[in-house]
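Exercise: predict the fold of this chain.
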Amino acid sequence: MGKKDIAEKLYTENNRIFADIVNYILYDGAEIVKPEHLKEVSGEELFLEEEADIDLFVESVASAVSTDRKAERGRSTGKNERRHRQKDYVVQQRYRDVSRQITIRQGQDAVYMLVSLENQSEVHYAMPVRNMLNDSMRYMRQVNQIRSYRKGKRSPDSGDFLSGIDSGDKLLPVITIVLLFQNRTWDGPRSIYEMLDIKDPAILKYVQNYKIHVIAPAELSTEELKQFHSSMREVLNFIKYSEDEEKLRQILQEDADRFNRMEQEAVQLLNLVTGAEIEINTEQEVMDMCKALADMISGERKLGYDNGVEEERKKRIRIIKNMLNRGFAYEDIMDIAECGRDEIIQIQQTM
């Protein structure tokens, strides 16, 4: 796992951040899901898939080979041969970045759901298939848990014996949210239909169109960004305008209080995904983001100035060398190249 992946995981596994993301997707920013509604669950998905039946023929010889074995080869006594039916399995193993079980109240009822985050530093062009597989494995895990709970409680003659569950058993809904930590739009497919090379509605009618839910900073409007109530708003805003100095300065000034209260994990994330060099003072509870931006811009301008000075120096040296090669007098070179006699002599000695 790379540094960016670790920073993204450390930031989004904060329950306040996680709840804020869920509220944006499900409730348009209304703070329905609270941090205390979340319960950590394993992000590992395991599934044993039956690959094939393999027939194994194992021959055990109890005595020495008799001289007349050739005559016996055509007959099977049933003693020297054992037939086994052995199942072969393929292990499917996947890892979610962050997963939580959510429990909220709706009237007199409790609502349960399983939500996972997929943090992306780049666009994943097979994400609909990837999420569909992960979600299917999470559903299959629930089926297996019910089957294990009910094991031995069913009659082999019952209709639900093969499936392991009955018509009254229910599963928890599984939701996956994709976060793109990059200042670009998600130009990959957002559904299975977009990955298919077919447009015939008669066929598509029978193809399940699995869709993904993406949060990409570059695609969010100002109104949508305000639907976030945690530092996720500032993180997405900073990433969105990370290459627009004027706009970045504007949002830092307008929301200075919110930016200055960002967690260290948020600042570390911004440093890694945008290339910013915001200093983190572990002794201070708040970050002076406006000063950090000023330092960033000042550093970039100083670097640009230094590079410009170096380019001018190289250009002046080329002019001086060309004029010396053509026999110009020192006074003429000094006037045209705007340099001193000592510099001309020093350059001439290197030729």
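Check your answer against the key: The radius of gyration is 34 Å.
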